[in-house]
Amino acid sequence: MKAYKLSGYTILDYQEREASTGLKHEYHNGNIRALAGGSLNHGLIGGNVSTSITRSLEKNDSKCFTLNSDVKLHIEKTNSYVYPDTMVICGAIEVAENDKNAVTNPILIVEVLSKSTADYDRGDKFYIYRKIPTFKEYVLVEQDKYVVDVHYRKNKGALWQIKRYSGKEEIIQLKSIDVKIKMEDLFKRVKIGE
User: Fold this and answer.
1) Nearest to residue 165, comparing CAs of 141, 191, 136, 194?
2) Which residues of the chain have pLDDT under 70?
3) Strand residue runs (E) in 9-49
4) Does 182 lie in the same domain as 162?
5) Which domain covers residue 6, as residue numbers?
């Protein structure tokens, strides 16, 4: 399915469109954007990320948990709704006032990059995410090479630190949730360069 963009819509229009079509859309202050389907590698990596983080959180007896790309995120300050590939919330779930199926308080967000979304995920989408008060860590995973970029800030107002992990043997540190995951676990069953 080809992605499309529509302008001049209210949040109610957006919610009705999603309910009537059964398809996921992003909403940005009056603009509705359909989400295109992902590749096999994208799906595998997304599942592996969620599984790896969940296992580590459970092992650490953490109060944090993962949510997959079926869960919508509302960013109030930009009047946006998006579907990150993976989110981590610590403590109680907070939901949007006008959409009880949209969370508002992730501490960590993961996006699996594709050629069509990489610039958006690194640029405008990261800008939007930075408006979330609880947000501390942004993880970008390439799907065609063993590369993960982690953007981290200790607290609101602090500068973002960027760490690139490159190579199958790397161990990725997620400081906001005190978790380490192996690159090879993120790319399990993924065919690189084929």
Assistant:
1) 141
2) 1-7, 194
3) 25-28, 31-34
4) yes
5) 1-37
